[in-house]
Amino acid sequence: MKDISGTLTLNNGVEMPQFGLGVYKVEKGRQIEDTVKDAINIGYRLIDTAAFYENEEGVGKAIKESGVPREELFITTKVWNTDQGYDQTLTAFDNSLKKMGLDYIDLYLIHWPVKEKYLETWRALEKLYKDGKARAIGVSNFQIHHIKYILENASEKPAVNQVELHPLLSQKELRAFCGEHNIKVQAWSPIARGRVLEDSDIKEIAKRRGKSAAQIILRWHLQNGIMVIPKSVKKDRLRENADIFDFELTEDEMRQMNALNSNQRFGADPDNFDF
Questions:
Q1: Gap between the Cα atoms of 168 and 198, Å rounded
Q2: CA atoms of 147 and 232, how far apart (whole Å)
């Protein structure tokens, strides 16, 4: 991947940017509008939101005001847990579309695998996909057993699985499983909410490379073939996060970072989540 606009090909042939902006906890109103517009101006083309974030309207407004043609942008949103089930999901999708003022979504995800419901929710996503309302469909926070259940009981396979993933939780087994089934893995919380920035190995690599610790971690994601959506509301940080295409980590540096995994979660565990 040579620059911020580089894409990976999903299992249905759709091209999706490998690098983008996540907007979890970005406040509705001016903050979300300015953040998305700043990101688009810098060159970001993937924007990842969710019904649960309550900022879809601002994302839609920023897209309109950005002056960038809709087809050059890749927009992801997600169905929340309380809206799961077949009919509810179709309604939730229409609500998201309306809030953003869009005709279609590029990628629609199930936010969490709500027991007893996520298969019905997936069937609704399949309909949205077949109807051309979503260019691709996928899941978020799904473990191997959740994905297996979908693969065994559905006609479409997920294009993407978005999960907590960073050097302390490298999700090797899950990544291997998704790789076997041609499902792209995308990292939320790619720098573990800042908790890995103080790691001595990462700091040492950063110093040697003249880069920030965050840039080293984001580069590690890209070289592992992981899609990544770092979040920031600061323009200089948005720019810094995207400035990771002028260097490559060596095999030794990658090995050093791969060795940091301790299966440490900072977000919720999908198998023990209070839905």
A1: 12
A2: 30
Cβ neighbours around 9 below 10 Å, total: 12
160/132 Cα distance (integer angstroms): 17
Instruction: Using DSSP, state whether 108 is helix, strand or coil.
Output: strand
Residue 186 has pLDDT above 70, yes or no: yes
Q: Are strands 105-110 and 74-79 parallel, antiparallel or unpaired?
A: parallel
**146 has binding-site annotation:** no
- Using CA atoms of 157, 182, 24, 190 in order, give the dihedral in degrees to the nearest 10: 160
Indicate the average pLDDT of the chain: 97
CB 150 within 8 A of CB 123: no
Instruction: Give pLDDT tens digits for 29-86.
Output: 999 999 999 999 999 999 999 999 999 999 999 999 999 999 999 999 999 999 999 9
Q: Which of 68, 96, 77 is nearest to 5 (CA)?
A: 68
Report which of 163, 265, 177 is spatially closest to residue 221, judged by C-alpha positions.
Answer: 163
Mean predicted confidence (pLDDT) in 13-32: 97
For the stretch 91-125, pLDDT in tens is 999 999 999 999 999 999 999 999 999 999 999 99
Q: What residues are annotated to the active site?
A: 53
Residue 198 token pair: 């103080």
Domains of the chain: 7-265 (3.20.20.100)
Strand 7-9 to 15-17 pairing: antiparallel
Q: Tell me the pTM.
A: 0.97
What pLDDT was estimated at residue 275? 65
What the block records as the tokens of 74 is 């890749």
Nearest alpha-carbon partner for 68 in 92, 96, 42: 42
